Amino acid sequence: MTKYLNAKEYDILDTILHSGDPVSVAEIMRIHPDFTSNIVQPAVRKMLKLGLIEVAEISVDGNIFSRRFKPAPTASNTIQKMFVDDYLQFSRLVSGQSLLSAMMQADDNPEKAMQEIAEMEKLLQEYKEKNYHPKRK
Predict the structure, then answer these.
(1) What are the contacts of 39-45 at 24+ separation with CB within 8 A?
(2) 116 beta partners
(3) What DSSP element (H or E) covers 47?
């Protein structure tokens, strides 16, 4: 359904986002031995085009030049937009309550889930305070 990234591309993005240091295509392939250059290279080009990653540096390994990638400063905003776009598509198919329930079922860490619930409750309260203005009599 998504028009952005497929599952393998999300795996590659996750690797880049959480690597700590910039990574090259060769390093991504070492982390994901089932991924070939034919999978990683197009995924990297796609993520560059979407503004999710950027070239951090160009390194030399022997006589081979390679680009190393890091998350773009706008990656978080872009990922949020991607999520909202997908949410809008899914919300036509199932209720918001069902989507939220699915999110909670997907989390296998109860402590993390409780923390996220508390954060969601805070966001919901802020939204109510900002947007709900009952008519006064």
Answers:
(1) 39/8, 40/12, 43/5, 43/8, 43/9, 43/12, 43/13, 44/12, 44/69
(2) none
(3) helix 37-50
pLDDT at residue 83 in the model:
86
pTM for the full model? 0.74
CATH number of 1-93: 1.10.10.10
Number of helices (H), then strands (E), in the chain: 6, 3
Q: What is the rounded distance in angstroms from the CA atom of residue 45 to the CA atom of residue 47?
A: 6
Residue count of the chain, please give it.
Answer: 137
d(CA 82, CA 80): 5
Domain chopping of the chain, boundaries: 1-93, 95-131
Q: Distance between CA 124 and CA 96 in Å, rounded?
A: 13
Which pLDDT tens digit goes with each residue over 19-56?
A: 999 999 999 999 999 999 999 999 999 999 999 999 99
Amino acid letter, 129: E
pLDDT in the model for residue 47: 95
